Every structure is written in structure tokens, then in C-alpha cells.
Amino acid sequence: MTEIYVDADACPVKDETVRVAERHGLAVHMVSDGGIRPSQHPLVQTVIVDPGSDAADNWIAEHISIGDIAITNDIPLAARCIEAGARVLRPNGEALDEGSIGAVLATRNLMTDLRSAGAVTGGPRPFGKGDRSRFLDFLDRTVQAAKRG
Q: What is the pTM of this model?
């Protein structure tokens, strides 16, 4: 059975994820190193890991499996989830897969190098209504595809 794993610390689409999961009867794991309010929803398991730079990522990577869905903006975590056979969505609705993750990782690494050299000081554009709407649409389609196998 498909399950949804959310890298929940800075995720702006937690409520939307629960709404879609509820519609499809799927378990959701909200994984964080603290700072999120535990959900009372019966389909949601709040997982609080020990503080640490990759503790939540490691928990997700160790528990996710083929057919599951990960929601994260963390590109290295996305790569690990894809390697485990999971589907990955970013909160803006962008799907990541075996065909796209290499280029996304390379871009992330390049931007990290440019920022550390002082060449780039800006970040991504702000999260907006269109991103939220696109996420809902893509998550629903991703769940349907995962359920078909």
C-alpha cells in the first residue's frame, strides 16, 4: 500500500497533503526534528527524530520503499527516495524522477558553489497560490498512478 512521507520541517503543503491522503485513504508520515505540531488525524503519524543535520532525511530514506511518495525540497533526499523506488514531489508540484534528478542535483551543487563564492545572493522565488494549486493537482495524479502500480 502506498504511503506518503513528508520532509515536514519547512514544508508549506502539509495540510494539502493530508487532504489528498484522506481522499485516498493513505497513511502520511510527517517527519521532523521538532517544531511541528503533532496531527490528530488518524492517517497521520508524526515522527520526531533527534536533532541533527540529516536525521529526518535519514529516517525517510530508511523507511520509504517502492510505490511510496516523498514530498521534499531536499534534493539529496529526493535522489535517495528515487533510488529506493519512490515517487518524489516538491512542494511546488514539480515531480522528480530518474530522468530529472541528475540535472537537478548538478544545478543544486552549482548554485551552492556560486553562493559560497558570493556570486549569487538571492534565493528561490516565493511560494505562491499557483504552487499550492499545482502541488494539489500533481499529488492527486501521483497518488492515482502509484495506486495503479
A: 0.86
From CA 105, how far away is CA 78, in angstroms rounded?
Answer: 9
Q: Tell me which residue of 134, 138, 53 sits closest to 97, measured CA to CA.
A: 138
Share of the chain above pLDDT 90, in %: 64
Could you give the CA distance from residue 2 to residue 129 in angstroms, rounded to a whole number?
27
> Cell numbers at residue 26, please?
493513505
The region, left, alpha or beta by phi > 0 then psi within -120 to 50, assigned to residue 118 is left
For residue 111, the tally of other CB atoms under 10 A from its CB is 14
Q: Which domains does the chain have, with CATH numbers?
A: 3-148 (3.40.50)
All cell numbers assigned to 77: 533526499
